[in-house]
Write a structure and sequence with these properties.
With about 500 residues, the protein is of the alpha/beta class. About 35% of the residues lie in helices and about 20% in strands. The protein folds into two domains: about 160 residues, Leucine Aminopeptidase, subunit E, domain 1, CATH 3.40.220.10; about 325 residues, Zn peptidases (Aminopeptidase, 3-Layer(aba) Sandwich), CATH 3.40.630. The structure holds ligand BES, zinc ion and manganese (II) ion (MN).
Length: about 500
């Protein structure tokens, strides 16, 4: 899909569809006023009939509006102008794209940049629209027997500028947002690929491909024998029961001087989580193909920042393994030694994410990182605590946490911070080992984060629990959300702009 800008007279623009906003009580947006004038009152006449009231997310498709070149005008409700905010604008944008999709308009002139959105500037509105439009048009068809019937393709959407002087700001935002959506789509594709295809080796291949596609990225794969040498006993214990060898995948994006310290992102890549010997109940076990969404978000974010040519060094790490039961699998009660030297009593083989991550988090010390963020579908308890709207955030550094909170609020890919106080650490004390891998039912997401905190003392770190936000399982509408690629990309861009 191509995005561009136009600054002509909307009624004269040659396009298949014009999208214009209407506020509540049928208050016209500036472009709606222009079209009304050109059509000698046609828009107001339609509004008086009452088919649309300008409530948020309402839409009405008009045909052959007099003296308007475009054969279609899509009215979209923007709601009450006085309470207009970013959330509403985002949902209005979604409503608009689903209509554009229905009519398969080859090209569209979108006149929503003039909409009131609280304090938000043109760049924000542009990014918001590109992101929502691409999300609305995304579908995962790789697994269909034959390619889907080709509907007439939507080729381009142009944003109408109120002032030609805005061109540079909007065009720059389009370029950045396009890069972001390429990353989001890549994350969704990988995440949606089922576990019989998306194995640890598949994730490694995807990372190697990223290194081939972008000059800025170098990919390295650590095999099981390499991890043995490093003493990653916890990591390796996870895939003992699987026929798929584990991989530690490292992607280095070099956008700044070689000596500049990198930001590091680490993703949980459990390509299937059966629970292992602590087998999960069968009912919804299939959801666990999504237990590599953290890994997918790392791949997607690396792709987005490579597309953006972000002038910063970033290391993306994926801890990939499959958690299966077998005669070789680790047992509840086993004790393993981590790369850090600390030992772990595995009381539940289904708490495997933290076993992978603890060794990956020790490994990344070698990069001397500015910050480390891990991303994981770590606990069902996080879904219980925060639902599907907010990602759980845990951090040992207030500044890092606040930077993530700000990036989330700004992009609407939001996070909510939970504590990792010392008091919770008592729940994972072990009689024989240095810690155990589960802390009981209480505060399950927090004790998981407290476990990771024991491996991240040497740097500023945050943990994102995306169990509730990374995917939705909703019948034919199921799928990966691409979260938190937007959050991470914004966070990294903000850091690059700080310098
Ligand atoms: N991958 C799961 C967490 C999960 C559950 C993500 C549901 C998304 C939806 C994780 O490996 C797991 O099994 N966690 C256990 C931890 C428990 C054994 C302490 C859980 O949440 O039940
Ligand atoms: Zn898991
Ligand atoms: Mn598990």
């Amino acid at each position: 899909m191509e995005y561009g800008t136009k600054a002509g007279i909307p009624s004269k623009t040659r396009t298949q569809c014009i999208v214009v906003g209407i506020y509540e009580d049928n208050q016209l947006s500036p472009t709606a006023k222009l079209l009304d004038k050109a059509s000698k009152g046609h828009i107001r006449k339609v509004l008086r009939r009452g088919d649309i009231q300008g409530k948020a997310n309402q839409t009405l498709l008009l045909h052959d509006v007099p003296n308007v070149n475009s054969p279609r005008v899509l009215l979209v409700g923007l709601g009450n102008i006085d309470t207009a905010d970013d959330h509403r604008f985002a949902s209005v944008t979604m409503a608009a794209i689903s209509q554009i999709k229905k009519i398969s308009a080859k090209n569209t002139l979108c006149c929503l940049l003039e909409a009131e959105v609280g304090e938000k500037d043109l760049a924000w509105k542009t990014t918001c629209m590109v992101e929502r439009f691409e999300a609305g048009l995304y579908s995962f068809t790789d697994m269909k027997g034959k390619p889907p019937e080709s509907t007439p393709a939507i080729e381009s959407i142009d944003f109408q500028l109120a002032d030609k002087a805005d061109q540079d700001e909007v065009s720059a935002a389009i370029t950045q947002a396009k890069a972001l959506t390429i990353g989001i789509a890549a994350a969704k594709d990988v995440a949606n690929t089922p576990a019989n295809i998306c194995t640890p080796a598949y994730l490694a291949t995807a990372a190697i491909q990223l290194g081939k596609d972008y000059d800025s990225i170098t990919t390295t794969i650590l095999e099981e024998k390499d991890m043995e040498k490093l003493g990653m006993g916890a990591f390796l214990s996870v895939s003992l029961g699987s026929d798929e060898p584990a991989k530690l995948i490292i992607m280095q994006h070099k956008g700044a001087k070689p000596r500049a310290k990198p930001h590091v992102i680490v993703g949980k890549g459990v390509t299937f989580d059966s629970g292992g010997i602590s087998l999960k109940p069968g009912g919804t076990m299939y959801e666990m193909i999504y237990d590599m969404c953290g890994a997918a978000s790392v791949l997607g974010t690396m792709k987005a920042i490579a597309e953006q040519q972000l002038p910063m060094n970033v290391v993306g790490v994926i801890a990939a393994a499959e958690n299966m039961p077998s005669g070789k699998a680790s047992r509840p009660g086993d004790i393993v030694k981590t790369m850090s030297g600390q030992t772990v009593e595995i009381l539940n083989t289904d708490a495997e994410g933290r076993l992978l991550l603890c060794d990956a988090l020790t490994y990344v010390e070698k990069f001397n990182p500015v910050t480390v963020i891990d991303i994981a579908t770590l606990t069902g308890a996080c879904l219980i605590a925060l639902g599907t709207h907010a990602t759980g955030l845990f951090s040992n550094a207030d500044e890092v946490a606040n930077n993530l909170i700000n990036a989330g609020n700004n992009t609407l890919d939001r996070v909510w911070r939970l504590p990792i106080w010392e008091e919770y650490q008592t729940q994972i004390k072990s009689a024989f080992a240095d810690m155990q891998n589960v802390g009981g039912r209480d505060a399950g997401s927090i004790t998981a984060a407290c476990f990771l905190a024991r491996y991240t003392k040497k740097y500023r770190w945050a943990h994102l629990d995306i169990a509730g936000t990374a995917y939705k399982w909703a019948g034919l509408n199921k799928g990966a959300t691409g979260r938190p690629v937007t959050l991470l990309t914004q966070y990294l861009n903000d850091r690059a702009n700080e310098n």
